[in-house]
Write a structure and sequence with these properties.
By secondary structure, this protein is α+β, with helices and mostly antiparallel strands. The protein has two domains: 75 residues, Glutaredoxin, CATH 3.40.30.10; 116 residues, Glutathione S-transferase Yfyf (Class Pi), Chain A, domain 2 (Up-down Bundle), CATH 1.20.1050.10. Helix content is 50%, strand content 6%. A four-stranded mixed beta sheet has the order 2-1-3-4. α1 links the parallel β1 and β2.
C-alpha cells in the first residue's frame, strides 16, 4: 500500500499515526502542498479534488479520505482496536471523532486558511473569519477541558482514533497561534501531553 501525503498537513498525519499505532508498514510518497505538487495532473488523476491523503492499493484502486483509509486499515488489521470494541464503544468513538473533526480540526483549519500568510495569493482569504474561528476554538478548548475532568482519553480510559484526530487538530493550531493554556485548560493539557508522548505521534 502506498500513501500519498504531505508531512505538514493534519489529515495525512492522522493516517500515519493510525498506521503507526497498529504497526502497519506504509510506503509513502510526499506530495508537497507548498510546492503545488497536489495540483499536477498526475496527482489530480488520483484525486481530482487535489486533497491529501490518498491510499493506493497494489491493484491501483485508491481511497482518498483520511477516515475511510483508517477504517480500511482497521478491517485489515483489527488489533489493536482503535474504532471501538462493541456497539456502544464504536458509537462513542464515532461521536468523539466527529466532535474532534467538526469542533476542533475544521475551525482550526479555517483559521489557518483564512489568516495565515501561507495561503496569501493562493486562495481568497477572509481574515475576520479567521479571528472568529480562533474564538470558536478557544471556546471548544474550554469545553474539552471540562469533558476530560474524569477520564484519561476522549473515549473512556483508552486511546482511540478520536484522540488521533484531536491531537492532529491541536498541533495544526500552532501556525495560527492557537495553543492550549495550561492554566485555563489543565485537563486538556494533561490529555495533550499524554497522547503527544506516544511514539506514534512522531509518525
Amino acid at each position: 500500500m502506498l500513501l500519498y501525503h504531505d508531512p505538514g498537513a493534519p489529515n495525512p498525519r492522522r493516517v500515519r499515526i493510525f498506521a503507526a499505532e497498529k504497526g502497519i508498514p506504509l510506503e509513502t510518497i510526499e506530495v508537497s502542498i507548498a510546492a503545488g505538487a497536489h495540483l499536477k495532473p498526475e496527482f489530480r488523476a488520483k484525486n481530482p479534488l487535489r486533497l491529501l491523503p490518498v491510499l493506493e492499493l497494489e491493484d491501483g484502486r485508491v481511497l482518498r479520505e483520511s477516515m475511510a483509509i483508517c477504517r480500511y486499515l482497521e478491517e485489515l488489521y483489527p488489533e489493536p482496536n482503535l474504532f471501538g470494541a462493541d456497539p456502544w464503544e464504536r458509537a462513542q468513538v464515532e461521536m468523539w471523532n466527529r466532535h474532534a473533526e467538526l469542533e476542533l480540526l475544521l475551525p482550526i483549519a479555517q483559521a489557518f486558511r483564512n489568516g495565515h500568510p501561507f495561503y496569501k495569493d493562493k486562495i481568497k482569504q477572509a481574515p475576520e473569519f479567521a479571528s472568529i474561528m480562533k474564538e470558536v476554538v478557544l471556546d471548544r478548548f474550554a469545553w474539552m477541558n471540562h469533558e476530560l475532568t474524569s477520564r484519561e482519553y476522549l473515549v473512556g480510559n483508552r486511546f482511540t482514533v478520536a484522540d488521533i484526530t484531536a491531537l492532529c487538530a491541536v498541533d495544526f493550531g500552532k501556525p495560527s497561534g492557537i495553543r492550549i493554556d495550561p492554566e485555563l485548560h489543565p485537563n486538556f493539557k494533561r490529555w495533550y501531553d499524554l497522547v503527544k508522548a506516544r511514539p506514534s505521534a512522531k509518525a
